[in-house]
Amino acid sequence: MPVRASRQDGTHPRPQLVREGWTDLCGTWQLAYDDAREGLDGHWAALVDLADRGVFDRDVTVPFPPESEASGIGDNGPHPVLWYRRALRLADVDGADAVHEHGHRVVLRFAAVDYRAQVWLDGTLLGSHEGGQTPFSFDVTDLLTAGDADEHVLVVRAEDDPRDVTQPRGKQDWLDEPHVIWYSRTSGIWQPVWCEVVPAVAVEHLAWTPDVAASAVHLGLTLREVPARPVTVAVRLELEGTLLAEHRVRVHEQRTRTTVAVPALLNGQARQDVTWSPETPRLVDATVQVLDDGDGDGGERVVDEVASYLGLRTAGVGGRAFLLNGLPYYVRSVLEQGYWPDSHLTAPDAGALRREVELIKELGFNAVRVHQKVEDPRFLYWADRLGLLVWGETANAFAFSPEAVRRLTAEWLEVVHRDVSHPCIVTWVPMNESWGVHDVATDPAQQAYTVALAALTRAVDPSRPVVSNDGWEHTDSDLWTVHDYADTGAVLAQRYGSPEVRATLEDFWPAGRRVLLPGAVDRGQPVMLTEFGGVRYTPRPPEEVPVERTWGYSSAEDAEDFAARLEDLLSAVHASPVLAGFCYTQLTDTMQEANGLLDERREPKLPIERLRRIITGRRED
């Protein structure tokens, strides 16, 4: 279905690189389970008669995973291999006329398919992709325009082996039924499928890096291909309709880095009028054009034009504090699983992603730690626009091996590449609680892995702090982050009520693991309590799990007991002279975990105003 591009309403699947139109390919697809893994040998990709259902004996609503009720199937499997099929017509693609008239290209895009995908069009293999949380694309122009047939058949094979614990999977369970802290799986296509018509020489990726001290913005520009002759790229930056900067650069290669001067940043006393923060989430609108001057006669033709945006802000650490725009900033964060009962890791719709950000802010938080999941770019868009700091995390594997290292490293680099321009993301977290590196305290190889991940992240993005292993057993982190589920404020006050706590970080901590491993260098990193709380309270029985199977790290008997426990814990955290911030566990109930501030349907367990007073404490202002 052709859709007019809109970044303002948060519906575009790639909100930081928007063209005028795009075509939504979500909706009803045909689905086949391939538990015996016979589809490749059986040439299922060549089954292009949509009227002959054959093995494609189910209908599924994309992008919802087949395990979810929203997909129309609700079969939690396990089914290690899924096949999808649907029609694709050039006539239905927005901007199709430009393919024949101007030689434009049709690009098919997948926002995320878990975990390994192969894609065919009319039985011709387009290619494959590994990594369940990152986007990929294929140029399908030649196949769509070849021959006389106006209906083409798109086939996707998705392999998501639930038993493979070297595969990055986060909170998705490797057992048939969810247990302890792990949830039902999200397999196959789980984020939007779409296509767009683009010029042959077109912008493929933009990487914005603000350099406030230098009064500039650095831009990494990637074109779809090397231009046959040099082109000019023109950049225009505006803030609330006021011109901030114009910049032109001659481009000879596929990838170019250039610097755009922003004079409004020169006056350090007035920078706060243009910088981004949760309190003032000012976004700079960017227009990027690719221009061709033809034979050099002075006339220029616009080859491609995209709309983007960025935020002028810095994120760092110093003086034992987290720094935003160079100043100490106390972080009030909440752990977010990004899971919905009817649609699992896929949001029910684009509006639900906006509402999630709004709820987090209404509760009094200024940050969110999206846990063991790379969130939909539209969620990040609303965090950018509404003002919410985000800890950029990824799903971890459960085992350590060379293959596990290869898989997570490759996917993590794609994650950083995808999200590097979002001002809301202020910290990168590639590893959590030694998942996949369970012996990191004693195994030099696992220690080298976490150190390398942190260093590699800084190499591709030196503009943000990096946490090597959130929770404990840090090797090389820019913040010392601790997970501590003490059930009383008195215990938290004892542990974090004195500056001497830093001297104990190398001791064994409540989880039985050291916070800092021997050799970790103290460069003055701030300390944050990035998981705590987890109080169980079930005023409304959950829909997916019997009440007796729900759990938390401690339990409240009624609403007043719940409020008292929250106040006890958060008051101790607020009073700590050591902590630079916190992350409360967690935002919503999720399956058997009934320790949310909201239930699974996003209904608050106490009035929002009361929760906000408890969460903000004396730091409300």
Secondary structure layout plus pairing:
Blueprint: E1 2-4, E2 21-24, E3 27-33, E4 58-62, E5 81-88, H1 97-102, E6 105-110, E7 113-114, E8 116-121, E9 124-130, E10 136-139, H2 141-145, E11 152-159, E12 188-189, E13 193-198, E14 203-211, E15 216-223, E16 231-239, E17 242-251, E18 255-261, E19 284-292, E20 301-310, E21 315-318, E22 321-324, E23 327-328, E24 331-336, H3 350-362, E25 367-370, H4 377-386, E26 389-393, H5 402-419, E27 425-429, H6 444-460, E28 480-483, H7 489-496, E29 527-533, E30 535-536, E31 554-555, H8 559-575, E32 579-585, H9 608-616
Parallel strand pairs: 24-25, 24-32, 25-26, 26-27, 28-29, 29-32, 30-31
Antiparallel strand pairs: 1-2, 2-13, 3-4, 3-5, 5-11, 6-10, 6-13, 7-12, 8-9, 8-11, 14-15, 15-18, 16-17, 16-19, 19-20, 21-22, 22-23
How is this structure best described in words?
The chain is an alpha+beta fold and 621 residues long. It has three domains: 175 residues, Galactose-binding domain-like (Jelly Rolls), CATH 2.60.120.260; 109 residues, Immunoglobulins (Immunoglobulin-like), CATH 2.60.40; 301 residues, TIM Barrel, CATH 3.20.20. It has nine helices and 32 strands. The protein has a seven-stranded parallel sheet. Helix 3 packs across helix 4, helix 5 runs parallel beside helix 6 and helix 7 packs parallel to helix 8. The longest helix has 18 residues. It is globular. The two termini are 47 Å apart. 49% of the residues are buried. The model has no long low-confidence stretch (mean pLDDT 94).
